[in-house]
Specification:
Strand content: under 5%
């Protein structure tokens, strides 16, 4: 069995950061648009979307390149939701 390749931290973190910024912006924009219609609609649609995507993401978490993308998406969505909640509380 050949030795394992070293983890590409610089490239992986760069990919994760870029994906996180895109996912965070998308989660915030989508949530804000839905919250303009009705806040409970925004919550329900976001929970359904995450519930639907979670099983696939869980299966793909061990694939070398995909794990960086999934980490970025997870971080971005969490930050997008946090900013959305803070925007809602601010006014």
């Amino acid at each position: 069995m050949p030795p394992a390749e070293p983890t590409p931290w610089a490239t992986g973190l760069t990919v994760a950061l870029l994906v996180a910024s895109l996912a965070g912006a998308a989660a915030f924009a989508f949530g804000a648009a839905l919250a303009a219609v009705h806040p409970l609609l925004a919550i329900a649609v976001n929970l359904v979307a995450v519930g639907g995507a979670a099983p696939t993401a869980w299966r793909w978490r061990s694939i070398p390149v995909t794990r960086w993308v999934l980490g970025g998406v997870a971080a971005g969505v969490l930050v997008g939701w946090l900013v959305l909640v803070l925007a809602a509380l601010a006014g």
